Amino acid sequence: MASRNSEFLKNFWIPNHVLVPDSKVDDGEIDGDGPKCPVLVFVNSKSGGQLGGELLKTYRSLLKEKQVFDLGEETPDKVLSRIYANLENLKVQGDQLAIWTMERLRLIVAGGDGTAGWLLGVVCDLKLSHSPPIATVPLGTGNNLPFAFGWGKKNPGTDEQSVLSFLDKVLKAKEMKIDNWHLLMRMKTPKHGTCDPIAPLELPHSLHAFHRVSESDELNIEGCHTFRGGFWNYFSMGMDAQVSYAFHSERKLHPEKFKNQLVNQSTYAKLGCTQGWFLASLTHPPNRNIAHMGKVKVMKTPGHWEDLEIPSSIRSIVCLNLPSFSGGFNPWGTPNKRRHRDRAFTPPFVDDGLIEVVGFRDAWHGLVLLAPNGHGTRLAQAKRIRFEFHKGAADHTYMRIDGEPWKQPLPVDDDTVLVEISHHGQVNMLATHESKSKSMYDPSSPHHNDAEDDDNEEDSLADEFRKFGAADTFKIPDEVDIAHLS
Asked: Which UniProt keywords apply (predicted)?
């Protein structure tokens, strides 16, 4: 058995001289042309309670220690920058093993959706040659990213056989592109109080201060704070984000109570009740409904904004990239042919440059997702979406990006809080045969007319706008525990 496993693992081993610059080439290290599926593994050792640490040990026992990284010790941008610099150097020297490794390299990331999104953002930022596809190990609470691509949503086994089984799936997985989305948030600098309108630690890790490099930067507006970041799965606002915020606040206060995935999910459900999500018509003031807080605009065709009418009863809105939300539900569903004809709605492809916008009245409305063809209120599919909040009865709302919530102040004077979401680019993912995500280019996916390409619009944006912000500018404060990314 050990010999059989050793032969199997040779598919994944990376030559030492590729992993460590200036090390000697061992001609007997690799059989044939090179590894069939060379992998780099990134593990958030503090995700999933003790599971992250145990998984790290198992991967290091099966693969070379230098190809398995603890994200608590070294950030992915540093790792990938170092290894790809070495690969490029070896490629210039004509090293065939390096060329082979670069062309076939795959990445594995184990952690929550926040951890996975971090790695995806780094790969997007670094613009690597032969950008490697990524497999995600479900090691968080929601695990929407792994579930969307067929890797499951339950925390995995950490024993040797479980890891070998996962590696076998990575070997057989197919590549699929995925859209990513840039989020810009702007608000006026407050006239009184502290400099920042939001305490730094209250913002998601994927949002951070936007440092302008010149006066000509089109995003540079004097007297404003501008934040930007990105997401892969969803941006949501309203009551669902409020429940998520309550959950994260409770976990921050009592981390010892949140070591088990089932306990986490049970606590989340209880908070949905205590926050009034199931009795929203009685407990949720009408001024908190989306339509009463601000205006929503969408861009369906390049350069043309139009107002989006939001039903007055909608208390939560979700801008969805993947068909997996709140633990695996698909709020958009698959529109039938009549819907396609009447409103031009299409299935939720993950690589079509469109984001799906869905509304919910309350948690009872959300229960329709349990039905085979259940879905939320479909509002729009768009290339961009913009929220504009003006002074009103509500002084705050709740927002969430890929599972990370925050409490968002709303204008108290004649100011505007702006949130704009736009298409950012694509990265490569690995998907199993159980993948829920569908490509518009996959012959087995439901057919629809290809979205119109418009490269000119993105080319007109400043380079800083297009940068995802996960590599050089992505900094986790020293006082923040990386476990919060799970």
From this structure: ATP-binding, Kinase, Nucleotide-binding, Plant defense, Stress response, Transferase
